[in-house]
Amino acid sequence: MELGVRLEQNQILAPRMEQSVRILQMDSVQLGEYLKELALENPVAEVEPPPQREQKEKLAQRKLEWLENQTRREQENMGYYDDDGDLTPEQNTPAPQDESLTDHLLAQVESAAVPRALAAAARYVIGCLDDNGYLKADPEQMRAKAGACDALLERAIALVQSFDPPGVGARDLAECLCLQIPASDALARRLARDFLPEIAKKRVGVLAAKTGASAGEVEAAVARIRRLNPKPGALYGAHVVAHYITPDIVVTSFGDHYNVMLCEFAYPQVRLSDSYLQIARETADPEVIKYIGEKIDQVNWVIKCIENRNRTLVEVARAIVRQQERFFRYGPQHLGVLRMREIAGLVGLHESTVSRAVRGKYLQCAHGVYPLRYFFVKGPEHGGAVSSETVKYKLRALIDTEDHTHPFSDRALCELLAADGISISRRTVAKYRGEMGVPGASGRVRG
């Protein structure tokens, strides 16, 4: 150990500059909460609801205009399996979210005219269901804990499986689907029971050969199966708190002109208290004058920081709209390569300031609501001027139009993109295809 002198250079933000940076990073909701806390600790600050200005009616009218012209997002073909390997239905009927699956089933037990012992066993079975409505419990443990014989337990399971929602109480995916298929639909029941892997791979020809049905009959049966719900219990009692996004910027189109508006009505306004200003003017006490003066100075600085935040945010948003005009005009598939340093150069700010300005902020336009960071896109691995999102859209278009009996390989897709002016490696094609959830050529073969 020794004692020495060392010279270091560190950057330390002054408290006011730190506060300015914090306010710059806040979204509308955070800014509203911050102003409420400010009013609690600073008696000179008064927070009032967003002003009802005449511009608000104009803003509402503009929003209606872009809502009427809102483009529908292109829905990608989803695979027949989701991330958990389960079937993905084409549509589900929503269930009341204020009622849990257990409560829904127990109510049906109470209304069912069954013996007391069977009702008790059914209530136990209901308690063994998972969140998706499946009966995954070990049969041996169920018999031991329920204190019921095998016959009674099977009757209880059958009773629960007869309840709403259809498919509840199943022990596996095949049984869940079969519970939802009418007994008269023998082909669909057989496909769901015995050939789920083939259905997932869309092997219509193989299924037709194994079942003795025609390709058309198999396709119709598969379509009926796809409309079933593989997770019947997931529709009930999720109790998920909805997360509402409040956009900070609204972009509307008027012909060839795009109007970038700040949503000032999303957070309350702060102003100086008239009563404390009156006290400061009338009192002769230097301590009171000093105290109120410091509090007034604090509020004025916060107001200045908010004005700077709003001005910076609008400037950055306008620059983004100019650079990504094809996105706002034609849709997400035309999102171009854009780096944060380019916007920083256009608005005359440091790149770190732009990063703080867009952090957690959202932009609302005719194509939806997007994080502002969404518009900063790195170029794909080939280093061209086309963004990775555009490459993915082109890949999707090629795959959607391919011959399903002889789908394109990754090498063929690579060559087709090259013919379209996009030089990209086969590995990158495989990477983008995987990110889109599209299987390889062998997994896309149909019939």
Automatic annotation (TrEMBL):
Name of the protein described by the UniProt record: RNA polymerase sigma-54 factor
NCBIfam families linked to this entry: rpoN_sigma (TIGR02395)
Keyword Protein biosynthesis included in the entry's annotation: no
GO biological process, any: DNA-templated transcription initiation
Region feature Disordered, mapped onto this chain: 67-98
Presence of the UniProt keyword Nucleus in the record: no
Matching Pfam families: Sigma54_AID, Sigma54_CBD, Sigma54_DBD
InterPro entries per record: RNA_pol_sigma_54, RNA_pol_sigma_54_core-bd, RNA_pol_sigma_54_DNA-bd, RpoN_core-bd_sf
Biased composition (Basic and acidic residues): 67-76
Species annotation: Anaerotruncus colihominis DSM 17241
Gene3D superfamilies named among the record's database cross-references: Homeodomain-like (1.10.10.60), RNA polymerase sigma-54 factor, core-binding domain (1.10.10.1330)
